[in-house]
């Protein structure tokens, strides 16, 4: 892989890791350069997660799995050519007697045949919920005999204490998967895993071999240390505006009247102007132009006003840093606008979701914004403490790059007394399936809006978006997804 390609892949890998989305590479014939490309991407992926110690072991595992998938596809072509039923036990045994010799002598022919029949090998890498997932998929359904063979080999692994012992004990001329699977599991054991970390399943017309690995204990410990130190030092970050904090307390008081709330807002000239500007923006789509705070309070309601105040307060807090806020907030504004309009169109009648969508979309990347805008002295202080506790500089910088930005953002939001709904969406917008039930749909909306903007910026591909969440919005094709995105983009750009 040349330096330009490596830089491009690293950018995609970082985006995938930060967003919890999968990376996928598909090949039909698996030439040697594609095999090398796949192992290089795996290496970059593990390095970005500070799991370099796994690279040599998992490279072998990957090569074994993609070779087996390629053989499975070739086997389907070969059996079809021979007029044999691969699912018939007698035919299977007869075919395997000559499979290896016949295909090795004419491998190019069989590879082109499997390509013509659309038989592929697909690598999928994903980091989500603190786990690394490596999958090799091929669209040849595994037979009962093949599955039994793998299962038998997994059962035999227990009797071997080393790779050398396995090699000397197992000789197999008919199918390479036998010894290879045993060595694969022994490789996993060398990095503290077991055969339970390895799975072979059939899903949606594909055979899937899957390795699921937790991050190393050291990595998890270090991420926890960095997050804790951010939280401990959070008082050094910009403070939430006191006037808006007081207003939030008033909004939270069940005895407060709309008149009292409007009067309190009106006492702050700057806040009044900004609030009316926000209320009258296209994002809130009011039926008529609002000209007074009293009218705004009545039209938006307590929940709507609170969300706008948190929006204003957050932008005000970050503006005090003196950074280029327009550039920093550009992505968040777009996600907020998309989130609100997705909620309006797909959550008709669910008023709370519609009311909260804009502010949740705007705040979703608060952790990233903190990383990019906090004063260098803040980072130096946290970094110094982390180094004293054994956290390497490289790991600290990877956390700053966004590996844990959702958790850090949620902790800041909690420090600023944000409503629990906003805190939850910040924390779970990359893993909405983990969100509490009451905020799950809102987290899904922000997840989709976020990835839609990244898709439009050509930073992610359609396949990387969770199909179950697309299904929630009745999106069944990439073209449909594009059309929705184009309409939202046009509306936002004209806003």
Mean pLDDT: 83
Q: Give the helix level as a range of percent.
A: 55-70%
What string gives the helices and strands in order? HEHHHHEEHHHEEHHHHHHHHHHHHHHH
Q: Please state the structural category.
A: alpha+beta
Helix count, DSSP H or I runs of 4 or more residues = 23
Shape: elongated
Sheet with the most strands, sense and barrel status: 5 strands, antiparallel
Could you name the ranges where pLDDT drops below 50 across 5 or more consecutive residues?
Answer: 172-177
| Radius of gyration using CA atoms only | 27 Å
Strand composition percent: 5-15%
Report, as a whole number of angstroms, the end-to-end distance.
43 Å
Strand order of the largest sheet: 1-2-3-5-4
In total, how many beta strands?
5
Structural commentary:
With 495 residues, this protein is of the alpha+beta class. It is built from 23 helices and five strands. The chain has a five-stranded antiparallel β-sheet with strand order 1-2-3-5-4. Helix 3 crosses helix 4 (89-105), helix 13 (293-319) runs parallel beside helix 15 (351-363) and helix 20 packs across helix 21 (437-456). The longest helix has 28 residues, at 55-82. It starts with a helix and ends with a helix.
């Amino acid at each position: 892989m040349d330096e330009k390609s490596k830089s491009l892949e690293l950018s995609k890998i970082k985006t995938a890791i930060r967003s919890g989305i999968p990376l996928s590479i598909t090949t039909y014939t698996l030439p040697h350069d594609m095999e090398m490309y796949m192992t290089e991407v795996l290496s970059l992926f593990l390095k970005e997660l500070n799991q370099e110690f796994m690279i040599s072991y998992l490279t072998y595992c990957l090569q074994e799995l993609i070779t087996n998938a390629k053989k499975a596809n070739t086997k389907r072509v070969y059996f079809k050519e021979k007029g044999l039923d691969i699912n018939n036990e007698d035919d299977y045994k007869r075919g395997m007697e000559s499979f290896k010799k016949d295909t090795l002598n004419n491998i190019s022919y069989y590879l082109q045949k499997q390509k013509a029949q659309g038989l592929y090998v697909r690598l999928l890498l994903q980091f989500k919920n603190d786990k690394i997932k490596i999958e090799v998929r091929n669209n040849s359904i595994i037979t009962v005999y093949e599955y039994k063979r793998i299962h038998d080999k997994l059962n035999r692994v227990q009797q071997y204490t080393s790779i050398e012992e396995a090699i000397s004990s197992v000789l197999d001329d008919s199918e390479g998967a036998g010894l290879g699977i045993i060595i694969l599991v022994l490789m996993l054991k060398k990095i503290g895993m077991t055969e339970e970390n390895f799975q072979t399943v059939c899903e949606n017309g594909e055979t899937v071999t899957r390795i699921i690995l937790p991050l190393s204990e050291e990595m998890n410990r270090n991420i926890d240390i960095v997050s804790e130190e951010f939280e401990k030092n959070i008082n050094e970050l910009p403070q939430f505006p006191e006037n808006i904090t007081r207003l939030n307390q008033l909004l939270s008081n069940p005895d407060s009247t709309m008149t009292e709330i409007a009067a309190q807002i009106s006492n702050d000239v700057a806040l009044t102007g900004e609030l009316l500007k926000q209320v009258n923006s296209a994002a809130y789509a009011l039926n008529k132009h609002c000209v007074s705070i009293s009218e705004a309070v009545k039209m938006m309601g307590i929940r709507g006003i609170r969300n706008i105040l948190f929006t204003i307060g957050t932008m005000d807090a970050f503006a005090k840093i003196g950074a280029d806020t327009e550039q920093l907030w550009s992505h968040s504004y777009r996600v907020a606008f998309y989130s609100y309009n997705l909620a309006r169109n797909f959550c008709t009648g669910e008023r709370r979701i519609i009311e909260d969508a804009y502010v949740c979309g705007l705040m979703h990347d608060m952790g990233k914004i903190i990383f990019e805008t906090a004063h260098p002295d803040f980072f130096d202080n946290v970094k110094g403490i982390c180094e004293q506790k054994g956290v390497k500089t490289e790991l600290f910088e990877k956390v700053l790059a966004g590996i844990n930005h959702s958790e850090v953002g949620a902790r800041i939001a909690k420090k600023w007394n944000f409503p629990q709904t906003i805190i939850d969406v910040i924390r779970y917008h990359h893993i909405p399936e983990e969100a509490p039930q009451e905020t799950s749909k809102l987290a899904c909306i922000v997840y989709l809006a976020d990835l839609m903007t990244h898709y439009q910026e050509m930073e992610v591909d359609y396949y990387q978006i969770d199909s179950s969440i697309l299904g929630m919005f009745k999106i069944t094709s990439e073209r449909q997804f594009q059309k929705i995105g184009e309409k939202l983009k046009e509306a936002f750009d004209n806003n």
